[in-house]
Amino acid sequence: MSNPNLSIQLNPKKILKILLGITLALVVLNIVALYLRFFPERYQIYNQFHEFIVDLIVNQFALNTEMNFPTYFSSIQLLLASILFFLIAAWKKLEGDKYRIHWKGLGFLLLLFSIDEFTVMHERLSKLFKNLPDFYGLFSFKWVFAGIGFVVIFGLLYLMFFFQLEKKYKILFLASAALFFIGALGFEIISGRYANYNDTRNITYNMITTVEETLEMGGISLLVYSLFDYIKTHFPETRFFLNTEESK
Q1: What are the backbone dihedrals phi and psi of residue 66, each rounded to the nearest 5 degrees, phi first?
Q2: Where are the alpha helices (DSSP H) in 120-235?
Q3: Are the C-beta atoms of residues 129 and 145 closer than 8 Å to each other?
Q4: Residue 140 in contact with residue 190, Cβ under 8 Å?
């Protein structure tokens, strides 16, 4: 006897609440990690297990540290957004939509961002711009030059694509992009200027990077919500199926 397929209908608002809930939890754990790292005189280590837990929190939940839980979460979010862009591009191709290439391009872009979240490739771009002035510390992290250039070129290439979107998705996509790039570039400039005149191993610098990473994760969460909502609106018959029928 065969079992029927299981249909899964995803609720964009619930997905957004889950993603923002995880983001909030990671921010709180980051604050705990910063407290444990920069104020060790305010608490006491009782045993080896206690020390292990403290080190685990500090290393695995600090937002300014790579290859830990916040990094994995951001990378997975970016990968999910990439997959959703590719799905929309596939449907647009079936419809003969002239902007299908733009959707696919966004899929590749988010896939690159997901990989970069692990490898931190963008920071290696600083070597290409090391001889450029830092403008009183605003561009201490020289890769920001490439980041600003990318945003300008990307904006020009996708201008017509943006204008053809419905008003709702203009607002959602613009808001998610603004949150992400204000964090990734805007607060990177702020943290760079601070780092130019101060040590980075202090609570102030890490609170700046906390805001930076929080905006990035929030922007990605809003983008994922926007894409699920777009799919629900434009492809209402879309279902995700799990085939539970046993092979004979």
Answers
A1: -90, 165
A2: 121-124, 143-157, 159-163, 167-181, 187-197, 203-234
A3: yes
A4: no
**Do 150 and 115 meet the contact criterion of CB atoms below 8 Å apart?**
no
CB 2 within 8 A of CB 246: yes
pLDDT in tens, 187-223: 999 999 999 999 899 999 999 999 999 999 999 999 9
For 223, how many CA atoms within 13 A lie in the half-sphere containing its CB? Answer: 27
223 token code pair: 């983008």
Residue-wise pLDDT tens digits, 95-145: 999 999 999 999 999 999 999 998 888 888 888 888 888 888 889 999 999
3-state secondary structure string across 1-26 = CCCCCEEECCCHHHHHHHHHHHHHHH
> In this structure, what are the phi and psi dihedrals at residue 237, rounded to the nearest 5 degrees?
-90, 0
Cα separation, 163 vs 166, in Å, equals 8
> Can you say how many angstroms the Cα of residue 223 is from the centroid of all Cα atoms in its chain?
9
CA-based angle 74:79:80, to the nearest 5?
100
Which single residue is written with the structure tokens 């990318």?
150
Would you list the DSSP string of 178-190? HHHHIIIIIHHHH
Helix axes 48-61, 69-95, angle to 10 degrees: 30
